[in-house]
Design brief:
7-stranded mixed beta sheet, tryptophan biosynthesis (chains A, B), globular, 2 domains, 18 helices, homodimer, Rossmann fold, Trp_synth_beta/beta-like (chains A, B)
Chain lengths: 455, 455
């Protein structure tokens, strides 16, 4: 059997999923409802609709429909880069000398360089369907902004990206990819919004933050006719779209009669992890199968392993709805020395509830170890991974080495969410031996958690 | 039939070619022999072997063996990123409103970002087989250096890359990818070689050139025990390895019963074009089929369309063997305003002979038009193409628009050699409207051609 598994398992085009899977439908303990920040009551579709596209607002709140059809236009776009390969990491296994079989679902073979495109194209589609002129969003490092730019170019939608000023200046290449796709990229805080002007006045010379960029993007969406705001992670709608990753992974494994023992993914806002694990968690929730699911987070931003399960604001600016989630507090800002993404203070409410109920385990890892794993992986598997994805690589390697000790032939599946081509500043730091680790103290976390809203 | 062709045609792993195809075996007019620069007589394997790996020197000189087995170790590496997809450009066709069917063979889905890896892994393999410690090479923009670094990391070979100083400083990210793969990257001219010291003394503050970097790499190879020099294009051995592109393309077309009418590729040194077209040119040479084959070169470096078919040095430093080829003269240096690669003064001797004999046509295009085509392609097909590859896109679009006028349903196949993720400086110029065109004058070309060696 082993010999027959190719290096890359490609599904046929007609095996591309036709529906996204809404894992909430199978959860006995549903995620707590998101709350209107003004009333602190569960938010309604009417309240969400001025900010989000109506169809997306519906998806956000729907806890019972198990499957959503993927519209044909989105499937056609998916066909340009999906089904993505499930790769058997033969070379990594050989390098490690492990009896474990390692598989990774590779989402990096598209110009956005990551899984973000899976939801970007869906969100752009619904905006187009609603007859909107365009969408606004924020971006930090630029992966999400790039994906959204591509999606908007495809549907001929205007795309306005507020990019954290420090990234805008330090990551000019990401910015140029977005511009090539026709997006308008504005360094945030800008002088084009009221909130931007206010922040610039209060903090002259500030290089911006994600929280500030969100505020500007939301203001831009709500003050221009025919615009809505879109977001790249955390939300349940995003996780829903990302289930295309898990559904393909499961289909590819089933095709070759492989039963995963362990599923590993990196976790920032939780949408890629949630998308990867949903079909597997669904089987667990329905009592049909058992898997060991591990969410890997950076030690510098450990929302699952050291955060609190509580209602919190989704944004630093506290203008977005509140969600119940594992959080470090919306004031928590990870150390600037932390290289990759995965900097979000909270965690998708779906993933949080699955973790709370024991379906998902969590592990935190330090960044120099992550880059060491990334370097080894790049050399033997030929793919330079994104720092975010490398968190999953690190734990997959650890688990494969445990199998080497115990002699177990486990099937380890992990999500390789993207490539690191636009992260070479971080790799340079690592190559030069100048990378260091940062772990927040208990006091720092307690201080941030003390500011949780009283809900 | 049309409807059944998927967006991406992936061959199965067991359909990966087992042999490279040596088109010279089918050529009645063989390429003229390469000459020893010291004696001006056809060079022998013994004379080549101190510089090149022995097996590669044999491949270089072999004009009669039609097929070379691809060693299993190389095929195993190929499996990590090959077979590469042949993509039906449905979205581009729709955008253009053309009845033509457009296909592209996409070589960019690997970390080197281009087809260069196909030959890098072969050259590293033969170096390892010969028991060498390492290899040396030069790189300009860094695509070849990246590919070779990956290949050397895989086979645990030392890799020394002399990178043109101006690129070393302006393209730090390419440099870091190479370093991550363990390569030693030295800005050229350096103070580590005699020739480098001499050039630095004669031209203080020089930012280097490819010719100088070649000289340093050759010196480094011949003065260190257990090293050889390797090259990423132009040579017949490189073209041989790149036939994996054309063989897969043909197999994919055959699988779906598609007969190509036109095959288009960009041409710098000629190895990707030669590799793509070899199996098709072979059919033409054997009188079995007919195709329209178009080599696309930049108007700023027009070796086929405005050069001379003559013996010339392969390098600016005039230390490498002479080849008969279409050339602009080894002194020709394309304008610095030319953004992409495709800057080589000459053309693979195989491609040159096929062009001389009428099997290949050539067309030159200006760079702003090329970037315009690249932008359109990126938006509808979702892949940000390399500037080099975009030369082929430009002509494919032109030909598809001709079909729109005539109503012909031609099958147009082109080579998309790589991605543009490390070329964002050029895209920025284009996005900012600061890109201009350069076409050398007749006088400039005549002046450079006047320096051709008297052979």
């Amino acid at each position: 059997m082993n010999k027959e598994i190719p290096y890359k398992i490609y599904l046929e085009e007609n095996e591309l999923p036709t529906q996204w899977y809404n894992v909430r439908a199978d959860m006995k303990n549903k995620p707590a409802p998101i709350l209107n920040p003004a009333t602190l009551k569960p938010i309604t579709i009417d309240e969400l609709s001025p900010i989000f596209c109506t169809e997306l607002a519906k998806q956000e709140l729907d806890e019972t429909t198990p499957y959503f059809d993927i519209p044909q236009e989105i499937r056609d776009f998916y066909k340009m880069y999906r089904p993505s390969p499930l790769v058997r990491a033969y070379c990594l296994e050989k390098k490690l000398g492990t009896p474990a079989h390692i598989y990774y679902k590779f989402e990096g073979n598209n110009t956005s360089g990551s899984h973000k495109l899976n939801s970007a194209i869906a969100q752009a589609y619904y905006a187009k369907q609603q007859g909107l002129k365009g969408v606004t969003t924020e971006t930090g490092a630029g992966q999400w902004g790039t994906a959204l730019s591509m999606a908007c170019a495809y549907f001929d939608l205007d795309c306005q990206v507020y990019m954290v000023k420090v990234s805008y200046e330090q990551k000019p290449f990401r910015r140029e990819v977005m511009r090539t796709y026709g997006a308008k990229v504005t360094p945030s805080p800008s002088m084009t919004t009221e909130v931007g002007k206010r922040i610039n006045a209060e903090h002259p010379g500030t290089t911006g933050s994600l929280g500030c960029a969100i505020s500007e993007a939301v203001e831009a969406a709500t003050t221009q006719e025919g615009y809505r705001y879109v977001l790249g992670s955390v939300l349940s709608q995003v996780l829903l779209h990302q289930t295309v990753i898990g559904l393909e992974t499961k289909a590819a494994l089933d095709k070759y009669g492989i039963k995963a023992d362990m599923i590993i993914g990196c976790a920032g806002g939780g949408s890629n992890l949630g998308g990867l694990i949903s079909p597997f968690a669904g089987e667990m929730l329905r009592g049909e199968a058992d898997y060991e699911i591990i969410a890997v987070e950076p030690a510098s931003c450990p929302s699952l392993t050291r955060g609190k399960y509580a209602y919190d604001f989704c944004d630093t600016g506290k203008i977005c709805p509140l969600a119940k989630m594992y959080t470090l507090g919306s004031n928590f800002i990870p150390s600037a020395n932390h290289a990759g993404g995965l900097r979000y203070h909270g965690m998708s409410s779906i993933v949080s509830q699955l973790y709370e109920d024991g379906y998902v385990k969590a592990r935190s890892v330090e960044q120099t170890e992550v880059f060491k794993a990334a370097e080894m992986f790049a050399k033997v598997e030929g793919i330079l991974p994104a720092p975010e994805s490398s968190h999953a690589i690190k734990v997959a390697i650890d688990e494969a080495l445990k199998c080497k000790e115990t002699g177990e032939t486990k099937n380890i599946v992990f999500g390789l969410t993207g490539t690191g081509y636009f992260d070479m500043v971080a790799y340079q730091k690592y190559n030069d031996g100048e990378m260091s680790d940062y772990i927040p103290t208990d006091e720092e976390i307690a201080k941030s958690l003390a500011t949780l809203p009283n809900v």
